[in-house]
Specification:
single chain, 129 residues, mainly alpha, 60% helix, elongated
Amino acid sequence: IRAHVDERIATERLTADMLSARFNVSRSTLYRDFKADGGLERFLRQRRLEAALMDLAFNPAERGAVTRVAERLGFATTAHFSRAFREQFGFAPSDVAGRCAHGEDAAAGSSAITASARRNAVEDVLKRL
């Protein structure tokens, strides 16, 4: 389930109902399986924020980029997204926009990379700031 989430978090709006149906497990089993991660919702939020970090860092900084990323990843408002992003990473989404958008780094922003490669790229972005 985690691999499924990692592969689709940037392109699909994932929910407990969708995941339980897709993997033929009850909601209670699904929530129990994610208890160690702080719960399913926390896990999904963390992955959405990581996807946002990647999108913002590895794509050119453009006007409205933060709003577009927030909407695409399913945050209710840009303010809610910005607050959650700052809590997770310690800086505003606008601070990271376009920071890695050049050369070979641009490929790291792709949603097609593996989960471990994405985590390494997130760590790399955080080190650069």
